[in-house]
Amino acid sequence: MAATETSVRIPVVGVVLDADVVVPPNPRGVVLFAHGSGSGRHSPRNRYVAGELQKAGLATVLADLLTAAEEQVDERTGELRFDIPLLAVRVAALADWVTDQERTAGLPVGLFGASTGAAAALVAAAARPSTVAAVVSRGGRPDLAGEFLRLVRQPTLLIVGGRDPAVLDLNRQAARLLAGEVRLEVVPGASHLFAESGTLEQVARLARDWFARHLVRSPEPSNPPERS
Fold this sequence. Notes:
Rossmann fold; eight-stranded mixed sheet
């Protein structure tokens, strides 16, 4: 049976967001993508990573965190992409939606955040400790999560390009503040967007392995034997 892809509109906290959902047969977990810096569900980099995760048996949800009208405002001002509280509330609401859907209910949830979306993912993880099982950041700005970093106990993987020194320094500082398991992976030769040959493939492999390790479904409770 092939994976099924569905385009949906998801009502969250007063707005309706567009999303593309792919569920492979017998998924082992689900990964929600938090885009940033003016990006959305059509991001070719995130869609590539999502495709690799799907091959590994993970369902994926790529959702726009801004409405079409908000995106037009953000294109002019660049402000909403840095509104971490707004984005984080929507990521948390999307995580709630994922757990309520029949095809993904009961699956462990991971968050994959890019750029400013990584900060939103970390704040959402702090707000949903029992829902979110793991976080991956690609070229992210975890520093923008501020004091919420100390509340993130989920295992977190920070992936940064070796040719992105400013962001690498910010990730090193953030890694010292995260409360749970954290790993910083530096991709040699990669700039901020991982546009160099082979670098995005490394991102996908690192994310796949991290989620495969940490998105583990809880065992079904067994029924106690009946007493005679």
